[in-house]
From TrEMBL:
One term under GO cellular component: mediator complex
Key words of the record: Nucleus, Transcription, Transcription regulation
Superkingdom per UniProt: Eukaryota
GO MF annotation list: transcription coactivator activity
Gene: MED27
Protein name, entry field: Mediator complex subunit 27
GO biological process terms, semicolon-separated: regulation of transcription by RNA polymerase II
Stretches assigned to coiled coil: none
Localization: Nucleus
Main location: nucleus
InterPro entries linked to this entry: Mediator_Med27
Pfam family, one: Med27
Length: 302
């Protein structure tokens, strides 16, 4: 402990100097208090002036005495030893040309920014972990016990695994029928029929949805000669594909998209949740909210 305190400073004189500074501050405060209060009430003008001058002189003598005591103790304190165990880092502050090579100040600034970056990165990581599964639609009737315990995470998934996922989704929704085919090898194409409302072609790349095309129930899904009445629904389906993104769990993405698509079973029966109308410019509410699945007109969802 003695080696730590042996830094070339008289600690007793240093402690006394601190008390002397406090006494000096008190005496200076009394001087200003005296000037603030002015002459106190006495019997005559002469006695008031005499009392004020006497008190002011005493306060000035106290300031002078405390200042002399502080100067005496400052000479006894000594100077800190320059032999600190800073090793090579102690030489950084001795740079004579600070304008040209301010290495020491730059290192301090970089250290501060590194601490700030680490702190904000930790906050961002906590917030992102809390929001990891909030981009999925409502899981209607899906129990956690029915989910597979281990899921492949690579882009190329086994065909049997993809067929099982599509089969489970098909059994989830009685109003929706899903026909799976592979016209070009391993890539799957789904023909989804939603009641008697519409049909959807879903082009998949492994278990990732690549594109969707929405057609009317009576339209030919394999040609492009339709009336394009369902073009807004196709655009909204494309937007939904961009919204439901969870690469670590592709089966959740497909199930969430199908849950959102199932909400169009009442395309011509559900009114707009904002204006309350069934038709606007001759069109039903074609937009479905990604979280609540509520119906809106395309102009009312703003």
């Amino acid at each position: 402990m003695a080696d730590v305190l042996n830094v070339g400073v008289n600690l007793d004189a240093f402690s006394q100097a601190i008390h002397s500074i406090q006494a000096l501050r008190s005496s200076v405060t009394r001087v200003f208090d005296c000037l603030k209060d002015g002459m106190k009430n006495k019997e005559s003008q002469e006695s008031r002036e005499r009392a004020f001058v006497s008190e002011f002189q005493d306060n000035l003598h106290s300031v002078n005495r405390d200042l002399n005591e502080l100067e005496r103790l400052s000479n006894l304190v000594g100077k800190p030893s320059e032999n600190h165990p800073l090793h090579n880092s102690g030489l950084l502050s001795l740079d004579p040309v600070h304008d040209k090579t301010p290495l020491y100040s730059q290192l301090l600034q970089a250290y501060k920014w590194s601490n700030k970056l680490q702190f904000h990165a930790g906050l961002a990581s906590g917030l992102l972990n809390q929001q990891s599964l909030k981009r999925s639609a409502n899981q209607m009737g899906v129990s956690a016990k029915r989910r597979p315990k281990a899921q492949p995470t690579t882009l190329v998934l086994p065909i049997q695994y993809i067929d099982d996922v599509i089969s489970r989704i098909d059994r989830m929704f009685p109003e929706m029928t899903i026909h799976l085919s592979r016209p070009n090898g391993t890539s799957a194409m789904l023909l989804v029929t939603l009641g008697k409302v519409l049909k959807v072609i879903v082009v998949m790349r492994s278990l990732f949805i690549d594109r969707t095309i929405v057609k009317g129930y009576n339209e030919n899904v394999y040609t492009d000669d339709g009336k394009h009445y369902y073009t807004p629904v196709t655009d909204h389906a494309t937007t939904a594909l961009l919204h439901y993104q969870l690469p670590q769990m592709p089966d959740v993405v497909v199930r969430s998209f199908m849950t959102w698509l199932r909400s169009y079973i009442k395309l011509f029966q559900a009114p707009c949740q904002r204006c309350g109308k069934f038709l606007q410019d001759g069109l039903p509410p074609t937009w479905r909210d990604f979280r609540t699945l509520e119906a809106f007109h395309d102009t009312c969802r703003q």
